[in-house]
Amino acid sequence: MAQQQVDAVDAIQSGQTSLGIELGSTRIKACLIGPDHAVIATGSHGWENQFVDRMWTYSVEAIWEGLQAAFADLVANVEAAHGVRLTSVGALGVSAMMHGYLAFDAADELLVPFRTWRNTTTEAAAAELTEELGFNFPLRWSASHLYQAVIDQEPHVGEVAFFTTLAGYVHWRLTGRKVLGVGDASGMFPIDPATRDYDAAMLERFDALVAGRQPGMTASSLLPEVLVAGQDAGALTAAGAALLDPTGGLQPGAVVCPPEGDAGTGMIATNAVAPRTGNISAGTSIFAMVVLERPLTSVHEELDIVTTPAGDLVAMVHCNNGASELGTWAGVFTEFAAAMGVDGGPDAVFETLFRAALEGEADGGGLLAYNYLSGEPITGLAEGRPLVVRTPGSRLTLANFMRTQLYAAFGTLSLGMRVLHDEGVELDSMFAHGGMFRTAGVAQRLLAAAIDAPVTVGDTASEGGAWGIAVLAEHLRAGAGADLSSYLAGQVFADAALDVAAPVAADVEGYGAWLAQYEAGLAIERAATQAIH
């Protein structure tokens, strides 16, 4: 980092810390940093979504139990590492899975269980909004969820007084303010890059569509206020501190930055907020964020147009299925190793498998794999069936199998990225983060082939979005009004260690051949969803 490291205990005791909390799809993570942006301690808690009444959801109880557990873990780790009790922080920020739908009535009561980004029940609403407003509305966007509820005449619709995202909800409970960072807000409703606020003309047309089906309802009045990075989004209240730390140890008063989505904090964590740069985040889902130099010329259903936390336009390629199937196969090989009496542990198995992938044929030896555990809107599939497909002449080896599994994690993503290429969007580099990039030079190299652009991995990638939202909180606390891009370049990443992998020509050619077969084979995936229940 650019600044000389400071003593952690001094930073904690003098209030020169920033806390970032991110609610991911499988883990809630807390990250405490000092004024040099170095990590002082982390805490975490695992959780899983539930499929209830045909909706993917997390209960309110699970949200707060998970936040409290992650914060308690952080407090314990601070004390174990530094010998002091964490009772206050200088600044705070909350990030979470983007999009989805949390609707509340006038008494601030939740009307229906939280509907996450993973739900694909909003096809009719998304299609009508896209057609009528001339802007791509993905299935998981909050406006799509609200309008689908209106179309379906759900009983709760008439009572909605406010709706928001998961990050916006948690921030509201911690500070009392119904606001949202512009990056997360851009996953609720389109943003006008000139005003850094909801697009006024589209809001007017949206209101008319909603009122046509639900007379008297003004949808635009239900959205949270939009803020950009660096703006004051409130302070941690006494009630909020008690929610986060029921023991009473955490004191209120910390300034709080605008709540953001995990896509935006991933961009912060990889210094990918300038035009011609972007980032790729690989976890349960996988998505790419590409900062645009200019608006796209056409509407593309494969692309979400969102923004950076500063409000600059971003093309987002979001795939519901990421590294989960890869992890499942690694689990099988871990079991096999244990059955053979080899106890190297999951990390050793992952590294062995990933290294084997580099020895595979560039086109995967004729193997195909689909990592579809759930539906995938980019390829038009409402459900998923994980598959491995080969012909009698395919070369089934460990190396080819693993190379194909890694290719599968990037397959749908590269189909979406191809749309950007056809639009003339140019990339200088893409930053990648997520657990699959921990084995140096493997997934990074194959991803470079998949997108035909240099891929950078940095020394902050493992902390991900929790560190990213902590940096946004520190930007508010000590950034002195600096614009976000300059702050990141000059104060955060000036001395960061980066590893860049350029595309290898043979890999690019081989991946292109594999992708052509992958695209043709989607008919097999579609048939599997119809035949196997």
Outline of this structure?
The chain has 533 residues and is of the alpha/beta class. It is built from 17 helices and 23 strands.
The radius of gyration computed from the alpha-carbon positions, rounded to a whole number of angstroms, is: 23 Å
CATH fold-level name of the domain at 1-97 and 231-270 and 460-502: Nucleotidyltransferase, domain 5
The average pLDDT value, as a whole number, equals: 94
Oligomer: single chain
Arrangement of strands in the largest sheet? 17-18-16-15-21-22-23
**Main β sheet profile:** 7 strands, mixed
- Based on DSSP secondary structure assignment, what is the total number of beta strands? 23
**Separation, N- and C-terminal Cα atoms:** 51 Å
Q: Unreliable stretches, pLDDT < 50, 5 or more residues?
A: none
Task: Estimate the global geometry from the Cα principal axes.
Answer: globular
- CATH architecture heading of the domain at 1-97 and 231-270 and 460-502: 2-Layer Sandwich
What is the CATH superfamily classification of the domain at 1-97 and 231-270 and 460-502?
ATPase, nucleotide binding domain
Helix content: 25-40%
Q: How many helices? A: 17
Note the beta-strand portion. Answer: 15-25%
- What is the class of the domain at 1-97 and 231-270 and 460-502 in the CATH system? Alpha Beta
